[in-house]
Design goal:
With 134 residues, this protein is an alpha+beta fold. The chain is built from four helices and five strands. It binds adenosine-5'-triphosphate (ATP) and magnesium ion.
């Protein structure tokens, strides 16, 4: 697998979340995703960026375009050095929230992606990787 392009974006403010949405949309168009798939990856990105900001205390989003033979794709990595998630399985349950949300962000992002990976250590931070293929 080859990474054709890669950009790292800070997530420190609500404006950064908006910028990431725009950047992911632009990259998804470049990759040639259908309108429906563009919206899926943008929605997932928005949820994960929001979590990075709200629970992780800010962090970064890395946007990569992937070239894997005939099948291009987009991979997004959200990282923070916040408090981490004690029980990742629980956090992935529909409706589970420690905030005031609906508790559908993480589980929704997983459903909207072709690949989903999460790693979190209490006291160290959280990393979520998603990918969508054409
Ligand atoms: N980056 C993170 N760092 C620490 N905790 C997190 C992080 N992302 C998610 N969580 C925890 O996982 C829970 C579930 O996240 P999820 O995005 O599914 O729901 P929510 O953000 O609470 O609500 P919604 O996204 O529906 O508005 C959060 O309430 C929070 O406790
Ligand atoms: Mg959320």
């Amino acid at each position: 697998m080859e990474t054709a392009a890669s950009d790292v974006h800070p997530i420190k403010t609500a404006d950064d979340v908006v910028r990431i949405r725009q950047e992911v949309r632009k990259r998804a168009v470049e990759v040639g995703l259908s309108l429906v798939d563009q919206t899926k990856i943008v929605t997932a990105a928005s949820e994960l960026a929001r979590n990075t900001l709200d629970y992780g205390g800010g962090g970064t989003a890395c946007v990569e375009i992937l070239v894997n033979g005939a099948r291009p794709g987009i991979r997004l990595t959200f990282e923070d050095k916040g408090p981490g998630i004690a029980d990742v399985q629980l956090a992935l349950t529909d409706g589970y929230t420690t905030g005031s949300g609906l508790g559908l962000g993480l589980s929704g992002a997983r459903r909207l992606s072709n690949e989903f990976y999460i790693e979190s250590k209490p006291g160290e931070g959280t990393k979520v990787v998603i990918a969508r293929w054409k």
